[in-house]
Amino acid sequence: LTPLLPYIDHRNRGMRTRLGCLSHKSDSYNDFTAILPDKPNRALKRLSTEEATRWADSFDVLLSHKYGLAAFRAFLKTEFSEENLEFWLACEDFKKTRSAAKLASKAQRIFEEFIDVQAPREVNIDFQTRELTRRNMQEPSLSCFDQAQGKVHSLMEKDSYPRFLRSKIYTDLLSQTQRRLS
């Protein structure tokens, strides 16, 4: 057993290092610029301080702005909870479905990815909402995810959004837009 001790200790150290990297939560302005829809410098030149400040007016203002959405997504990634936003966006896209043939398959994909127990990107909703959504899947309609989407929206608005407004990503972004003016 003694000859194995250095090997075990070395393996544990490597595991601790890997886990340490996984648990490192970066919350920086650069994390936001990396996922901007346009080239970061060009995008930020178009973003005014007034626009970025308006994101604090309401959660829906933030979600309706292309760069606000990108910044919020970057923030949620630092909290390992971007599945909430991805589900909300998938529901918004789903509501635009016009083909009856595509409706059922899109609904099934969303359900399997976000709602089903043990889904790869399972959102945090209560049992009743999950079961109602499961029943809605028997005859999918454009409104079959409404209650679940509403719960996730409310969760993000009450929980993640206030933290986003205090985050380094948002405060750094505001500072960058203000620096450009001076």
From TrEMBL:
Biological process, per Gene Ontology: negative regulation of signal transduction
Gene3D superfamilies linked to this entry: 1.10.196.10, Regulator of G-protein Signalling 4, domain 2 (1.10.167.10)
Topological category with respect to the lipid bilayer: Peripheral membrane protein
UniProt entry tagged with the keyword Nucleus: yes
Source superkingdom: Eukaryota
Record keywords: Cell membrane, Cell projection, Membrane, Nucleus, Signal transduction inhibitor
GO CC aspect terms: dendrite; nucleus; perikaryon; plasma membrane
Localization: Cell membrane; Cell projection, Dendrite; Nucleus; Perikaryon
Domain RGS: 58-174
InterPro entries, per database record: RGS, RGS_RGS8, RGS_sf, RGS_subdom1/3, RGS_subdomain_2
Protein name (database record): Regulator of G-protein signaling 8
Species in which this protein is naturally found: Corythaeola cristata
